[in-house]
Design goal:
Layout: E1 2-7, H1 15-31, E2 36-38, H2 52-56, H3 63-75, E3 78-87, E4 90-98, E5 104-109, H4 115-121, E6 131-134, E7 137-141, H5 150-158, E8 163-167, H6 175-189, E9 192-196, E10 199-202, E11 205-208, E12 212-214, E13 220-223, E14 229-234, H7 237-246
Parallel strand pairs: 1-2, 2-3, 7-8, 8-9
Antiparallel strand pairs: 1-14, 3-4, 4-5, 6-7, 9-12, 10-11, 12-13
């Protein structure tokens, strides 16, 4: 499945403008043959928006979700996007996957909140593995800081995730995550990992970009720079199957030795 990663911070605080950016990127991605477009964490509203998080948060089936579904349907590709989700009195840092026919396939709430801003404004999610079937692949969702915890990525591997989608808002000086950790996560768990980051200065944060899609051989199939960019790579089920057959990491595990981890 050809996968597009949009590296952009859009226009923080203005969901309508960010939907326009998403629409334009979806058109370019579809024209290049992509079946999936992944955009960054909190893309619909912006990340560094302070107390506006609560005001701009919407239900998973709210107006913005309907707008994304319309974009996905019109361009004929699936979209994974980050947004603040309201559920009653709680607000979650969430990511949703919508299919090319506008169906809401999966919704994930970030389980590992990063820093004081996130802990002050969001409730942590309680479901670690969220998946959906898309174009012959099992797609899993995590958000940014989550992927830095090997346990949650391994849980996805054991649950059969083929392509781990990671909407991200990672900032300087943590470039090593994109440069080194993402390819390692992909090879040690025998999956593709699609990491779509924000870019540029936003409030107190300097987002570094470097969005990447890494394969199960640890090789980056696509890697963006430090500017707004749309990059593409293929998640190939045949290559993944061959890699899993050749690589013994998951087969050679000894779970009985790791009980202290859980």
């Amino acid at each position: 499945m050809r996968t597009a990663l949009l590296q952009s911070s859009g226009r923080p605080g203005f969901a309508v403008e960010n939907l326009k950016v998403l629409d334009e990127a979806a058109g370019r991605a579809a024209a290049a043959g992509a079946g999936l477009l992944v955009v960054p964490e909190m893309f619909l509203t912006g990340y560094a928006i302070g107390d506006a998080v609560a005001r701009l948060a919407e239900p998973a089936d709210g107006e913005s979700a309907d707008a994304v579904a319309e974009i996905a349907t019109r361009h004929g590709l699936a979209i994974a996007y980050g947004y603040p989700e309201r559920d009653g009195e709680s607000v979650f840092n969430s990511a949703q996957l919508i299919s090319a026919d506008g169906t809401r396939l999966a919704n994930y709430r970030k389980t590992h909140l990063f820093g004081g801003f996130e802990r002050d404004h969001f409730t942590p999610g309680e479901r670690g593995v969220v998946q959906a079937e898309l174009n012959g692949l099992t797609v899993g969702l995590v958000i940014c800081y989550d992927v830095e915890f090997p346990e949650i990525v391994r849980a996805h591997a054991l649950a059969g995730t083929d392509l781990l989608v990671v909407p991200t808002a990672n900032m300087h000086p943590f470039e090593f995550v994109a440069e080194s950790m993402i390819p390692v996560r992909a090879v040690e768990n025998q999956m593709y990992v699609a990491y779509a980051n924000r870019v540029g200065q936003e409030g107190e944060f300097e987002f570094f970009g470097l969005s990447t899609l890494a394969g199960p051989d640890g090789v980056a199939r696509a890697r963006a720079g430090r500017a707004e960019q749309l990059v593409f790579a293929d998640a190939d089920p045949a290559f993944l199957a061959a890699s899993r057959e050749a690589n013994p990491y998951l087969r050679d595990r000894r779970p009985g030795l790791y009980g202290s981890l859980v």
